[in-house]
């Protein structure tokens, strides 16, 4: 295999730093790297070296496949009781004039708009407000599943769950069981930010802490369910904070196996309280994907968002450990452009997305939320009546 040959060439390089050689040998032998070695990768690993290691692992785990799915988003509100410094999306309650608060009927109307669309997932994410309580969400989930039982419901994060369970005085295990009974099927990866308290307390004080975020995912996994995990990187954190973040995820994954995908989220600095913090370079973004792929040996998938990082970087990321880029986007979602995403009006049809993946020699697969194959696009010929397949979908960036 080409990836094996390239890794052996790296290992045989007599000029290679000895720590980096040890790590490359571990990757070749399918061994886990340590916390300290994770930090070494950030400090010393240059892009070419990291790409060879990450691509080796990517191809071992997922071959040439590159996944995407078709979903749409519901954003209940852009108001929030919290005040995360990096958030370009939420308006504090005191600035209510710029906010929206959707009712249950509004959200069900949005669901119905997609009745004839070939979407497989709805992703609900937004700000945190008192009226969206435990009862509201159990009723909403029940109503969505009653209306369209085979639409996969991926909703909310430990940020909301911690808040609503505390108010309702139910423990995490009981609360998550209630959510499952109401129809919740997956939990998205948001709200993780950076776990280390010295960073978290400075950027997103007051919302759930690392232990609470992880405990809620653990309870969810214990019910046999799946979730994702994110990391907001490239702001005030240091390399060891990123490794600490991934280390905590790796430990929980060893225990439960419930995580599907790790999603590194590049900090974007437009219109938020951290606008003075410069953004990372493309090189650093690719290095970060690669190190995530190397460190998280027990995660099956690493996901990149093309709208957040540009189409070109998304294509490049597929050689640095990434095997999943999210689906096509519509221009109804305001959130992306608010944080300064590359694409101010992100929109890409399925045909364009498939071409983007094929252009860099990868094999496009449309998946459902649980990575079952919906359509293999390797030899797929698009017909004119595939208009539905070319419709647009959206992504959130809050929580
Ligand atoms: O937790 C907020 C991030 C996350 C900014 O699981 C920002 O499939 C960059 O987690 N710059 C929410 N990032 C989005 C999220 C997500 C999105 C799509 C799919 C899935 C999934 C998860 O967005 C927040 C926060 O870390 N975020 N503001 C910003 N200025
Ligand atoms: Fe609220 Fe989420 Fe924005 Fe934080 S990131 S202020 S929790 S909407």
What does this structure look like?
It is a single chain. With 399 residues, the chain is an alpha/beta fold. It has 16 helices and 13 strands. The chain has two domains: 61 residues, no CATH class; 316 residues, Aldolase class I (TIM Barrel, Alpha-Beta Barrel). Strands 7-8-9-10-11 form a five-stranded parallel β-sheet. The protein has a three-stranded mixed β-sheet with strand order 1-12-13. A three-stranded parallel β-sheet has the order 2-5-6, covered by helices on one side. Strand 8, helix 11 and strand 9 form a beta-alpha-beta unit. The radius of gyration is 21 Å and the shape is globular. Ligand V47 binds next to strand 8 and strand 9.
Short description:
With 399 residues, this protein is α/β, with parallel strands linked by helices. Helix content is 43%, strand content 13%.
Topology record:
Layout: H1 2-12, H2 18-28, H3 35-44, H4 47-62, E1 65-68, E2 71-74, E3 79-80, E4 91-92, H5 104-113, E5 121-124, H6 134-147, E6 152-155, H7 158-168, H8 172-182, E7 186-187, H9 197-203, H10 210-222, E8 226-233, H11 239-256, E9 259-266, H12 282-295, E10 301-304, H13 306-309, H14 311-317, E11 324-325, H15 335-338, H16 350-359, E12 363-367, E13 373-376
Parallel strand pairs: 1-12, 2-5, 3-4, 5-6, 7-8, 8-9, 9-10, 10-11
Antiparallel strand pairs: 12-13
The chain binds ligand V47 and iron/sulfur cluster.
Cα-to-Cα separation, first versus last residue: 41 Å
The neighbouring-strand order within the major sheet is 7-8-9-10-11
CATH architecture of the largest domain: Alpha-Beta Barrel
Name the shape in a single word: globular
| pLDDT < 50 stretches | 330-337, 387-399
Q: What is the overall number of helices?
A: 16
Number of strands: 13
Q: Would you identify the CATH H-level superfamily of the largest domain?
A: Aldolase class I
Topology as a string of helices (H) and strands (E): HHHHEEEEHEHEHHEHHEHEHEHHEHHEE
Number of domains: 2
- Amount of helix: 40-55%
Bound molecules: ligand V47, iron/sulfur cluster
Strand content: 5-15%
Radius of gyration: 21 Å
In the CATH hierarchy, the third-tier topology of the largest domain is known as: TIM Barrel
CATH C-level class of the largest domain = Alpha Beta
Largest pleated sheet: 5 strands, parallel
- Tell me the structural class: alpha/beta
């Amino acid at each position: 295999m080409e990836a094996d040959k390239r890794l052996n060439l790296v290992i045989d390089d007599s000029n290679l730093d000895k720590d980096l050689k040890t790590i490359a040998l571990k990757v070749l032998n399918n061994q886990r790297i340590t916390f300290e070695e994770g930090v070494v990768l950030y400090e010393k690993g240059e892009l070419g070296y990291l790409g060879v290691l990450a691509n080796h692992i990517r191809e071992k785990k997922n071959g040439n496949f590159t996944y995407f799915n078709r979903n749409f988003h519901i954003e209940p509100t852009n108001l929030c009781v919290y005040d995360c410094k990096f958030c370009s999306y939420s308006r504090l309650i005191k600035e209510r004039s710029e906010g929206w608060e959707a009712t249950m009927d509004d959200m069900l109307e949005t669901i119905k708009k997609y009745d004839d669309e070939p979407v497989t997932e709805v992703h609900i994410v937004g700000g945190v407000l008192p009226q969206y309580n435990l009862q509201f969400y159990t009723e909403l989930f029940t109503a969505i599943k009653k209306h369209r039982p085979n639409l996969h419901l991926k909703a909310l994060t430990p940020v909301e769950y911690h808040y609503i369970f505390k108010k309702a005085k139910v423990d995490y295990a009981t609360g998550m069981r209630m959510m499952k009974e109401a129809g919740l099927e997956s939990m998205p990866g948001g709200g993780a930010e950076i776990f280390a308290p010295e960073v978290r307390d400075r950027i997103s004080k007051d919302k759930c802490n690392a232990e609470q975020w992880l405990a809620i995912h653990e309870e969810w996994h214990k019910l046999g369910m799946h979730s994702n995990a994110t990391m907001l990187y490239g702001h005030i954190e240091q390399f060891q904070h990123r490794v600490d973040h991934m280390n905590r995820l790796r430990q929980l994954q060893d225990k439960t196996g419930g995580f599907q995908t790790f999603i590194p989220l590049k900090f974007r600095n437009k219109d938020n309280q951290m606008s003075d913090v410069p953004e990372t370079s493309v090189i650093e973004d690719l290095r970060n994907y690669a190190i995530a792929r190397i460190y998280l040996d027990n995660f099956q998938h690493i996901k990149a968002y093309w709208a957040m990082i540009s189409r070109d970087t998304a294509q490049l990321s597929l050689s640095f450990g990434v095997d999943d880029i999210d689906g096509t986007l519509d221009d109804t979602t305001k959130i992306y452009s608010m944080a300064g995403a590359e694409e101010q009006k992100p929109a890409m049809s399925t045909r364009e997305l498939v071409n983007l993946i094929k252009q860099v020699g990868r094999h496009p697969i449309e998946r459902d939320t649980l990575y079952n194959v919906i359509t293999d696009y390797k030899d797929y010929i698009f017909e004119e009546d595939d208009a539905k397949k070319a419709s647009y979908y959206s992504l959130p960036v809050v929580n």
